[in-house]
Structures are given as structure tokens and as C-alpha cells.
């Protein structure tokens, strides 16, 4: 079932790992600071800005399909480094990769656009009261969703007058920690410090986003979430050391079709599997593009691969000789 190997298996070649295993190759190679010295990352920072210096590596950090198609088989070196702020907590790229939205460690979202090889600030989104902990920019609908320690979430739509926020009813009593759009972008998921996952969808008649909660399944904060390609299954990691997979099927929002496979018969909030492979905090989690493999990482500098997620799933773990892993992105298999 669970095997450890000294060398990296083939699957690791198709992954991007967190902290030193992920950020250093992307950020350091080809990126130089003052005096021509190579810029190093500080792997002790848990934000999207490992150095804590407000610089974002302008390279293929995003593990989405558009990055996979553009950078598959190419070097993962950062093309340039630009200092946007003193510290950055989270960021997201626009669909055409011409703009970037990030939180400079406060309650605002700054949006910069690349114009003639220069990054210019074009928008500042102000609605939250505390630090923004998660941002995701939808690929098809061009919407931005933000979550914050103030327990609120907003969906931002770009109009002629600028970005207009729409309220999201989360019903949380603790901070919202992470957010991600579903593949079809008719839902998004929010992980929180309330041991709860919110599955949000739009109500046209009330012009707001409402949520259904997956409760009493986690024993601690939900640190990361990842959607399966079928738009129904959702994987989560938590500081209780476990990775779980849930069904998020919502009647009236999701349509049953053959692409869902066995997920079509599941109920909302039903736990498909619970993985107890990590005996420490579990962080980043991702599905492979095919949806057949799940990968997640832990504070113990290990990455876990699970094939054919279910009651008889086959698992494999790989130890990394670096600091604790913070995130993982699968770019192939």
C-alpha cells in the first residue's frame, strides 16, 4: 500500500513542489538582484512571497491547464522578478496572463497590468476588513473571488466602471483561509479555520452567492482545497494531518452526466475517502489532469501520491531533502 523510495519516482517529474523544491528553481535561476548577485528565497515564510520582500517570480508558478500547455517540457526558470510590495500573502493571474492580482499583506487586492515591459497598477479592490488570505481568478468568466480573515468572501466582476463586488454568504465563525473556482466555474470552494468547507454557488434572484457547508468532517483548520476535473469531487487537506475527498453535488446546480462516473450517485458532503498518510500538518493538494491521481504534501517534507482514490486506493510517499513543503502542482500525468 504505502511505500517509501529513496529516489524520486517518475511522477515527481511531472510535479511542482512547494518551498525549496518548488520556489527556488522558479525564482532564483536567472533572477538577479543588486550587484548581480543571485536572489535567494526564504523558505520559512508560508505566503506566496517566500522572501517576504514583495517580489513575485514572473514565471510558471500556476499549475493550471493554461500553464501546463504553455510551459510543458520547458525550463521552469523565472523570466524576471518585480517587487510589488514589502510582503505578499496570495496572488492569482488573469486568464490571458497579462495581469496579476495580489494582496500586499493587508485588506486590499492590487491588480497590476503588464504594459510595454513595465508593470502598472490599474485597480485596487477594497471591501475586506482584514488580511486577504486567498485569491482565485476564473479562466472562462474572468471573475475574481477573494476570501479574508474577516470571515467574508466577495466575487468581483469587471464592468466599465471597474471591478464590482458581489456578496458571498459564507456563515463562518472563523477566518477563511483558501479559495478555488471549480472547473466549470459555477461553484467555488472556501476552506476555513472553522473546520468547515463552504461550497458556494450563485442565486440569480437574490444577486448573491450562497453556500452549503461541509461540517464536522475536519478536526482542525482546512489549509488547501482542490477540485477534481469532474466538477463534483473536492479534495481537502487540514492541520489535523489528513487528506479527505468529498462530494459537492448540488441539485439544480450540477447536472448528472456520464463524465461524473461514480460521483453522480453521491450526496452533498458525503466523504469518499480519508487518507491518514501524513502524521503532521498537511498543506497543498492537487489532482492530476486526468483525475486519476491525487497528490498532497505535508510539514514533514514528504509528498504523497494516491492512485484510483477510493476504499482500495494505492498510495506512495516520497521524502524530500528540504524544508517543509507548502504546496504542490501537477503539470502532467
UniProtKB/TrEMBL annotation:
WD repeat copies, ranges: 125-157, 215-247
Protein family (similarity comment): Belongs to the WD repeat ARPC1 family.
Spans annotated as Disordered: 32-63
Keyword Ribonucleoprotein: no
Biological source species: Datura stramonium (Jimsonweed)
Coiled coil segments of this chain: none
Gene designation: ARPC1A
Keyword Cytoplasm set for record: yes
Localization annotation: Cytoplasm, Cytoskeleton
Superkingdom classification of source: Eukaryota
Name listed for the protein in its UniProt record: Arp2/3 complex 41 kDa subunit
UniProt entry keywords in alphabetical sequence: Actin-binding, Cytoplasm, Cytoskeleton, Repeat, WD repeat
Amino acid at each position: 500500500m504505502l511505500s517509501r523510495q529513496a529516489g524520486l519516482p517518475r511522477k515527481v517529474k511531472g510535479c511542482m513542489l512547494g518551498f525549496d523544491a518548488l520556489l527556488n528553481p522558479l525564482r532564483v535561476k536567472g533572477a538577479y538582484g543588486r550587484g548581480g548577485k543571485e536572489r535567494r528565497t526564504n523558505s520559512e515564510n508560508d505566503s506566496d512571497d517566500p522572501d517576504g520582500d514583495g517580489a513575485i517570480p514572473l514565471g510558471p508558478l500556476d499549475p493550471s491547464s493554461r500553464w501546463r500547455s504553455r510551459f510543458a517540457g520547458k525550463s521552469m526558470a523565472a523570466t524576471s522578478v518585480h517587487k510589488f510590495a514589502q510582503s505578499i500573502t496570495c496572488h492569482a493571474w488573469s486568464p490571458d496572463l497579462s495581469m496579476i492580482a495580489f494582496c500586499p499583506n493587508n485588506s486590499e487586492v492590487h491588480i497590476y497590468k503588464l504594459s510595454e515591459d513595465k508593470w502598472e497598477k490599474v485597480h485596487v479592490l477594497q471591501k475586506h476588513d482584514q488580511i486577504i488570505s486567498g485569491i482565485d481568478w476564473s479562466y472562462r468568466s474572468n471573475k475574481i473571488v477573494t476570501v479574508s480573515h474577516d470571515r467574508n468572501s466577495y466575487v468581483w466582476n469587471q464592468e466599465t466602471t471597474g471591478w464590482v463586488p458581489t456578496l458571498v454568504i459564507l456563515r463562518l465563525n472563523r477566518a477563511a483561509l483558501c479559495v478555488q473556482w471549480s472547473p466549470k466555474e459555477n461553484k467555488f470552494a472556501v476552506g476555513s479555520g472553522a473546520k468547515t468547507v463552504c461550497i458556494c454557488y450563485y442565486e440569480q434572484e437574490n444577486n448573491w452567492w450562497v453556500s452549503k457547508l461541509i461540517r464536522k468532517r475536519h478536526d482542525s483548520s482546512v489549509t488547501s482545497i482542490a477540485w477534481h476535473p469532474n466538477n463534483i469531487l473536492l479534495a481537502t487537506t487540514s492541520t489535523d494531518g489528513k487528506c479527505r475527498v468529498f462530494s459537492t453535488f448540488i441539485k439544480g446546480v450540477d447536472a448528472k452526466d456520464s463524465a461524473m462516473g461514480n460521483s453522480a450517485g453521491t450526496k452533498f458532503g458525503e466523504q469518499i475517502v480519508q487518507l491518514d498518510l501524513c502524521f503532521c500538518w498537511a498543506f497543498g493538494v492537487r489532482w492530476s489532469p486526468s483525475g486519476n491521481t491525487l497528490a498532497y504534501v505535508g510539514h514533514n517534507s514528504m509528498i504523497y501520491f494516491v492512485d484510483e482514490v477510493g476504499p482500495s486506493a494505492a498510495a506512495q510517499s516520497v521524502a524530500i531533502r528540504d524544508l517543509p513543503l507548502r504546496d504542490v502542482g501537477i503539470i502532467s500525468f
